[in-house]
Amino acid sequence: MHIMEGFLPPVHAAAWGLASLPFLVMGARSVVRVTREHPRAKLLLASAGAFAFVLSALKIPSVTGSCSHPTGTGLGAILFGPAVMAVLGAIVLLFQALLLAHGGLTTLGANIFSMAIAGPWVAYGVFRLARTLGGPLALGVFLAAALGDLATYLVTSVQLALAFPDPVSGFLGALTKFGSVFALTQIPLAIIEGLLTVLVVNLLIQFSRDDLDELAFAPGVVR
Amino acid sequence: MHAIDRHAWTNRWRRHHPGEQLLLAGGGLVLALTLPPLTAGPLLCILMAGATVVGAGVPMRAFLGVMALPTGFLLTSAPFLALSLDLRDGLHLAYSPAGATLALAVTLRSLGALSCLAFLALTTPVAELVPWLRRLGVPAAVVEIALLIYRLIFIFMERAVTGQQAQAARQGYSTRRRSLRSLGLLIATLFQRALERARRLEVGLAARGYVGELRVLTPERPLSRRRLAGIGGLLLAVALGSVLLDRGLV
Predict the structure, then answer these.
(1) Exposed/middle/buried for B225, CB within 10 Å: 0-12, 13-18, 19+?
(2) Tens of each residue's pLDDT in chain A, 223 residues
(3) How far is B5 from chain A (nearest CA, A)?
(4) CATH (residue range A10-217)
(5) What b/e readout covers B77-111, taking b as 16+ CB neighbours within 10 angstroms?
(6) Which of A29, A58, A160 should be substituted to probe chain B, the one whose Cβ sees the most B Cβ atoms within 10 Å?
(7) What is the DSSP letter of B171?
(8) Of A47, A178, A204, which has the smallest distance from its Cβ to B197's Cβ?
(9) CA torsion angle B95 A155 A97 B59 (round to 10)
């Protein structure tokens, strides 16, 4: 859920940028460390980033008849870990603004926070938790992708509600308003993305075991 | 996407120092967010459309094309700001005049900011903007990855689109169940191909003596003081114009 260019007031735009900063610094450090240890990881990460960008160009069948696209947040978090995903996600969001006019430069911080930080961290946390509790892989992947998506929408709703509190009922009213609009369209999409991610991970395990093993430098990894 | 990228590489201001376009777009964005939106929004749209079409020689159609889709989103989402939700006894949705004023202001602010983004996207190639991230303190490794991503996006995109077309031609999207399966297959294949691409890149670069750093020659482009002054003047004019118009002085 991209917040479009200029939609947020300046203070909010700057505040979300600041909130994203520590995660980006942490992610950039881990990217620098990984690429120093494995120079070829640079090419792998670049491929992963381009892959994430391209996911947003694919159409996903939606229940309501409208089309949407997979976010790849859950998949990326499981395969590459949330720290690296913050950096890749930020780059992808920047390019979506510059190449598609999707999202924006002033709202980049807010969009990074919801899509490249909150989503991947929730997805990763859920995945680890499900695996630690001994849940089957498919369930963990499904929950990670679906809940990661929902976390993204929830954060976007909070961002909008904070920026535009309801004239009568304030923040809570606005949150209910934005949240219910998103819930109608996004809960079915989150479920679809969950199912889709399970399919993809299963296919990858079936056909590209070696590729997954190569991602060993990443902390996530379906093993 | 291809249209935006093509115009960015072929427009008349292509050979100018990217800092000039960055100043105009960045300054415009700052003005869009800080000035009274009712007057600054439309003024910025006019300035950016003028700079893109008259200055850089990008067709008006392309500029409007970039603006169209986000404007559609804007017009469907801004009205929600004009609705007010009362939670005190039950749920009541009502039209709020204060909300409507806000919705108008946000719409115009967004349009103004969007025109700046459209100008930047249409006149400056991404490959010229990314190296500026170095100046913001982004590590070299990350900037290099960003540049590589930019190069790979177009290759992967073509693959994804043709893949989906081929699947659709084989009834891959005829039912909902099948669409999900097809999309899963497509994404898994794209992922495999992405990794394969990375391997091939690595072999190719290793053969050229790659040790973890890609060196490219960036052409020297002097910053033109005249143009910088012109851009400053235009931004100042927009700022003054919007403040004066807002106070009803003009």
Answers:
(1) exposed
(2) 788 899 999 999 999 999 999 999 999 998 998 888 877 788 888 888 888 888 876 766 555 445 567 778 888 888 888 988 999 999 999 999 999 888 899 999 999 999 999 999 999 999 999 989 988 889 999 999 999 999 998 999 999 999 988 877 888 888 888 888 778 778 888 888 898 899 888 888 887 777 677 665 444 444 4
(3) 7
(4) 1.10.1760.20
(5) bbebbbbbbbeeeeeeeeebeebbebbbbbbbbbb
(6) A58
(7) T
(8) A47
(9) -10
Residues 3-42 on B with a CB inside 8 Å of A are 4-5, 29, 32-34
Identify all chain B residues contacting A169, using CB atoms and an 8 Å cutoff. Answer: 84-88
ipTM field: 0.90
Enumerate residues 6+ apart whose C-beta is below 8 A from B213: B140, B144
CB nearest to A104's CB, from B106, B113, B141: B113
Query: Can you give the pTM of this predicted structure?
Result: 0.91
Q: Which of A21, A30, A37, A47 to mutate to test the interface with B (most CBs of B within 10 A)?
A: A47
